[in-house]
Amino acid sequence: MQLRFNRTNDEIDQMIDQLMEKAGGVHHPDLAREMIISALKAGQDTDYLADLKLLSNTMKEMRYTTKIFAPYRHKKKVTIFGSARTNPEEPMYKKCIDFAALLADKGYMIITGGGGGIMQAGNEGAGSESSFAANIRLPFEQSANPVMLKNPRLITYKYFFNRKVAFVKESDAIAVFPGGFGTLDEAMEVFTLIQTGKTSPKPLVLVDDEEGYWEHFFRFIKERLLVMGFISAEDFSIFTITKSYEEAVQVIEEFYTNYHSMRFVNGELIIRLTKILTPEQIEMLENEFPELRLDNSRIELISARPEEADEPDLLDLPRIAFHFHHQHYGLLMAFIRRLNTF
Predict the structure, then answer these.
(1) Could you tell me the residue range of the domain that residue 290 belongs to?
(2) Which strands form 300-302's sheet, in the order they lie side by side?
(3) How far is CA 213 from CA 152, 221, 250, 252, in A?
């Protein structure tokens, strides 16, 4: 039988409805039904066991990720990346402890990869009660650090891609300390997601050492990537480099001075704020960032759109809206920093 996502599967649809009713407590049953249909279609589409295992394990890992993070949805979180090989006696280890401790004091929770080095320093600084660990199964080097070993917020992944989703999706900011291939891979993923709008805007802070690890990186992207036209000048708004952990915390906090969150509704970009903008301030934003708007689009003060009813706790926030030019996510980061000055 050829299964379809619309309700044209007759007896199968009825059986799925009965299954969900019998299970009980199924939220958003239309989406749950689509997932069941997807599983059945996958079973029909391939007899290759490895592919089905990958699909099954991916679903299991993401379900468990959602379960662990869900109770903390309204707590701001910062993901920390960095080398597993940074020793406790090194200055960057101590700097990461101080950075995470300061964030925890300000009410943030910390997400790390759960291993040693910078990851352990992040969990150590924040403390077990304010930490998550997204660990990965590896044949060497990566086991849960002592701070997180028996923590209920420790998740151990089989797949790097699921782990990366958790790092970015669940965070309100990213801090990257010096590291090797894995650290650079994680950092480049965040660069790409912000640049292409595949994750919500968030601060990306590169915390440097005294030798200028990230300054060398900055020189490379400026002298090679920018000069060769692989990136644009506005992409430098995506990140901040600093040697000061206090400044790194300040960058994160200031990003949410007035900006709260955003979403798209029917092609319109809606930016939620913590305080309302005046007509004069909106005019300033229009004059300073004309490239952000499609032709004939204006920045407007609006109330919540009906489509935003699925986020009831945000309905009373002031918001602005305009039709966004999707080639300018780097400039959008600069726009957010500007409206935070009001």
Answers:
(1) 259-339
(2) 259-265, 268-273, 319-322, 300-302
(3) 34, 13, 21, 21
Q: How far apart are CA 258 and CA 324, in angstroms?
A: 19
State the first-to-last Cα distance of the chain, in angstroms, to the nearest integer: 59
Q: Kindly give the pairing relationship between strand 154-157 and strand 240-242.
A: unpaired
User: Is there a single domain that holds both residue 121 and residue 195?
Assistant: yes
Note if the pTM is more than 0.90.
Answer: yes
Chain-centroid distance of CA 174 in Å reads 8
215 and 95 within one domain: yes
Distances (CA, A) of 222 to 72, 227, 300: 38, 7, 36
Residue 126 inside a domain? The answer is yes
Query: Is 75 in the same domain as 26?
Result: no
The structure tokens 């040697």 sit at: 243
**Residues pairing with 77 in the sheet:** 109
**Checking DSSP bridges between strand 173-176 and strand 204-207, what pairing results, if any?**
parallel
Verify that 119 and 236 share a domain, yes or no: yes
- Could you tell me the two tokens for 7? 């309700």
Nearest to 103 by CA among 87, 82, 81, 80: 80
Do 206 and 292 sit in the same domain of this protein? no
* Model pLDDT for residues 88-142, shown as the tens digit of each residue: 999 999 999 999 999 999 999 999 999 999 999 999 999 999 999 999 988 765 6
